[in-house]
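Students often ask why we bother predicting the structure of a whole assembly rather than each chain alone. The short answer is interfaces. A chain on its own may look different once its partners are present, and contacts between molecules only exist in the joint model. In this exercise we take two input lines together and write out one structure for the complete complex. Read the inputs first and try to guess which parts will touch.
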Amino acid sequence: MPALPRPVGRPRDPALDVAILAAALELLGEGGMETCALDAVARRAGVGKATIYRRWPSKDDLVRDAFGSTAPELLPAEDQGSLVGDAVGVLAALAAALRAPRARAWRRTVPALGPDSPLLPGLPTGPVGDWTGAVDGVVARAEQRGEVGPGTFPPLALRAACAVLVERWLTGQDLDEATETALLTELQSVLLRPHLRG
Amino acid sequence: MPALPRPVGRPRDPALDVAILAAALELLGEGGMETCALDAVARRAGVGKATIYRRWPSKDDLVRDAFGSTAPELLPAEDQGSLVGDAVGVLAALAAALRAPRARAWRRTVPALGPDSPLLPGLPTGPVGDWTGAVDGVVARAEQRGEVGPGTFPPLALRAACAVLVERWLTGQDLDEATETALLTELQSVLLRPHLRG
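Now the answer. The structure tokens for the assembled complex follow.
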């Protein structure tokens, strides 16, 4: 293997970074680590291989960064004014994230890794962003606005709603728009509303 | 490749079948399809390769059968006398199934397959047995004994409890005995009890 230039601190063109990381995720989603060869990433992103090596010293580094730098924020940036409003925002963001290339890439790459895989450290443990943190944020906002008393709304109720979406995705059940709307309504009524009475 | 004998209807020694299927699941759990070579299965099960070929014409057939014939029954065979009793039975069976070699094998094999993989048809869509069917069974029993009115207990509440366990497993969070007991208690109180009031 030829000696490679060391990566230099900040990449020079952020748009190239985005294109390379997106190409890596797409290829991982199509066939896992095997399909995500650096040649293929370079072709898909329309760059030379050297452009990739200047940024990431190895494929493992590129893959880790592709997952790490594309994790979506699931909590709506704007407070939606109610626990249910914020919760539906998180659930809709989660459903969208589960349809995105990053989740497809995760599905074909991460579960198949053994506990001793050198790729594993630094990879996300879940297919999408930090939904546990988003759930805690929803409950904290509701407590701050006095909608629920401190500690009275169980985060597990909303975590369970998220888990239903993750489970559907894992078992390959597509979520078209109409099904998603119906499911989000049912999740609200069955899991969230009972804890908002009184 | 030498001509192989065709499989003959019923296998001759069921104990050998069990040993071969268990060896295949173990190896899949250790490293997916690559690790589950027929040589390795034969060694692990303590049989000759011909013994395997007499039963399954190809590795894909063996792998499908390993998943299909070892799916656990999640609904307790004995009616536990209450919806919560039956539900806890399903959740405990699900937690145990997620710790078993079959779930580990599924995790390292199935999510990584592409939609066009020839192995995919005939493989289970989920890591364990039929938990949706088990949930429906719990609710049907409760309705039959008059504990809940027809259609008043939402199966989604119990499906969500199952999904929490599946999500924990997927993201690699171990469930030791004490954590499992605490989680099952919380799932009951947050997800099931609100629908049993009145």
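Check your guess against this: The CA atoms of residues 14 and 171 of chain B lie 36 Å apart.
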